[in-house]
Amino acid sequence: MDWDKLRVFHAVAEAGSFTHAGEKLNLSQSAVSRQISGLEESLKVPLFHRHARGLILTEQGELLYGTAKEVFAKLSMTEAQLSESKQEARGPLKVTTTVAFGSTWLTPRAREFLNQHPDIQLALLLTDSEVDLGMREADVAIRMSPPRQPDLIQRHLMTVRFHIYGSVDYLKRRGIPKTIGDLRNHDLIVYGSDTKPPVDNVNWLLTVGDPDPSERKVALQVNNQYAIYRAVRSGLGLAALPDFMVDENLNVVKVLPDVTGPTAESYFVYAEELRHSRRIEVFRDFLVRKIGESRF
Predict the structure, then answer these.
(1) What value does the mean pLDDT take over residues 6-35?
(2) Higher per-residue confidence, 225 vs 89
(3) Please, what is the average pLDDT of the chain?
(4) Cα 225 from chain centroid?
(5) Where in the chain is the domain with CATH 3.40.190.10?
(6) Beta strand pairing status for 264-271 and 217-222?
(7) Three-state DSSP class for 265?
C-alpha cells in the first residue's frame, strides 16, 4: 500500500472533503483526488461515496480509516518521544478534562505552567465525555472517576467535595438558610436529566435531609456544571458545586457549610506508552503542587 496515498486518504477522511484535505497537505484538489483514485484502483474497492455535499466513507473506507487513524496516532506518539529531551520538556501536550474543572480551575493556571515550560505547546480539550487516550485523542486526562481502561496509568489527584453555594446578592435578597429545612424557601439550580452527569448523585441538593423532592423549588435545570456556577453567580439561586470551582472573591459564598454532598475522586491518567514522557512528568508535578496549594 503506497504510503503517500495512505497519508492523503487519512487527511481526506479526517477533513471530509478533497478541498480541505488539500489545504492541510498543501496540495491542489485535483492532486488529492488523483491520489485517492489511485489508492482505490490499487485496492480495487471504493473508499468514498461522492456527494455534492461532501464525502462519506464506504464500509471498506471505514475499515481502512480505522487502521490508518491508529497508525498515525502511533507515529505521532513516536515522533513526540523521539524529539523529547530527557532534560527539557518540549513539544505538544493535549490535556482533556471536564468543562467545570478545565474552565474554572485549570485554565487560569495555564499561564503559570507555560511560563515555566515555554517549549511545551499546551492544548486543552474540555468535555464531559470520556476521550479515548489509547487512540491518542489526548495525551493526558484529568478525570472525576477511575479510568475503565486497564492499560492506562493513573495517579490519584484529589478528593472532590461538594457544598451549597449562593451569590452574595441572592442571599441579601432571599436570606441565608440556617437549616436544611430552609431550602424549601429557596430557588435551586440543578443538573438536567438529558445527559449523563459528570459525577454520580449530582442532584443530592434535592434530597439531602431526606425530604420529598417536591418540597424544593427548582428554578433552573442545566446539563453543565460550569453553567450552573454562572447561574449561581448571576443571583438566580442556590446550587451544589464542587469546591474547586468557587472563588469566593467573585461574589459566591458557601451556605450551610456543615452540609456536604457525595465526594468524587479525581485522577491523572495517561497511556502506558507515555510513561517516560518528560512533558507529562512536569505537568503532573505542576498539578500536584498547585492542588496542594489550594484550599479545597
Answers:
(1) 90
(2) 225
(3) 87
(4) 13
(5) 84-160+265-293, 162-262
(6) unpaired
(7) strand
Question: What's the fold here for domain 162-262?
Answer: D-Maltodextrin-Binding Protein; domain 2 (3.40.190)
Residues near 117 by Cβ (< 8 Å), separated by ≥ 6? 89, 279, 282
Domain with CATH 1.10.10.10 in the chain: 3-82
Q: What is the pLDDT of residue 80?
A: 65
Which pTM does this prediction carry? 0.67
Residue 248 half-sphere exposure, CB side, CA atoms within 13 Å? 10
d(CA 163, CA 253): 10
- Predicted local confidence at residue 258, as pLDDT: 92
Greater confidence (199 vs 238) lies with 238
Q: Which CATH architecture has domain 84-160+265-293?
A: 3-Layer(aba) Sandwich (3.40)
Cell numbers that stand for 69 in this block: 487513524
User: pLDDT tier at 248 (50, 70, 90 boundaries)?
Assistant: low
The fold adopted by the segment(s) 3-82 is Arc Repressor Mutant, subunit A (1.10.10)
* 62-117: pLDDT as tens digits: 999 988 888 888 787 777 666 555 567 788 899 999 999 999 999 999 999 999 99
